Request: fold
Amino acid sequence: MTVGFVQDTPPDPIRFAYWVPNVSGGLVISKIPQRTSWDADYNRRLAQIAEESGFDYALTQIRFTAGYGAEYQHESVAFSHALLAATSRLKVIAALLPGPWHPTLAAKQIATISQLTNGRIAVNIVSGWFSGEFRAIGEPWLDHDERYRRSEEFIRSLRGIWTQDNFTFRGDFYRYTDYTLKPKPADPLPEIFQGGSSRAARDMAARVSDWYFTNGNTPENIRAQVDDIRAKAAETGNRPRIGVNAFVIARDTEEEARAVLQEIIENADPDAVKAFGHEVKNAGKASPEGEGNWAKSSFNDLVQYNDGFKTNLIGTPDQIAERILALKDAGADLALLAFLHFQEEVAYFGTHVIPRVRALEAARESRAEAA
Ligand SMILES: Cc1cc2nc3c(=O)[nH]c(=O)nc-3n(C[C@H](O)[C@H](O)[C@H](O)COP(=O)(O)O)c2cc1C
Reply:
């Protein structure tokens, strides 16, 4: 399906990222058997498979406590470095949570990893959804929009420290006076991603982020977010790129793929899904416009942490490739993907889906040249 936004199609090939399963239980809140593991050896091998398969980025997750089946969680920055050490081209995006992290430590730590890995580290600034986690570690739980105000200052601090000598900044959360970090990160500078789709999240993306990550959605809804962010960003001169979450179930037939989705949902842990739904909807309550990431999520949507079923990358490789092009037409620069059995399915995606996407992109380009 294409949705008629071809005139704005980003010219670059769409990029692929995968969620690093550094948290136990995989990326669905379901008791369906998964061959995915959260351990280091599994993840190092997965990162190698991903870079051989045509993935550009891996996104690690930050979590401080268990919840909804995610009993074990490896820390994101340390884990990212282990994946970088096991690979040679892949970029790894480490998640940072303002509050537990201070920008001074984050800037220094990431600059060193950047130096150690020829600039293959990036960061995802997350603003928090899990109030129980904040309570457990004694961190104040700010209102929704205050969390974003802090995240924006965090990003401005990181960028200032990484690009300026004698950095001086007067924020409400962070302050710097004539601060010079040496060494600075390697070239290219770590890209700054962010997660969230509320008004506050979009405005922050428009002002300061390199990348905006949003939950799974239809091309029409992605387009609306892209237009909204681009209109605001035009005022500041920033041009954030857009990453869209999706849970991929690629099988040789559509029936097989749909059956897997059915099985994941039938095996969902209802108490855990409801508790997760309660937590995330509550986290967005203070977002005045009510457009946050999970504002409209149903029970079935919530079985995947970031509404990844909504993007509908579920079917045959041909169907999925067409739908990825529709996302690109809607303004997406990157597809952020999760899978049930990561190692096998990332390899399958690389063999069967990415070449189809590239062929569709090439066909489109040659049509455009001929016109
Ligand atoms: C792709 C993506 C990745 C995220 N990763 C994390 C994470 O690792 N840890 C975390 O606490 N929150 C994570 N978040 C949550 C966001 O930072 C944000 O708090 C949440 O999406 C609320 O968004 P809202 O502004 O739309 O209400 C992620 C969100 C997205 C979209």
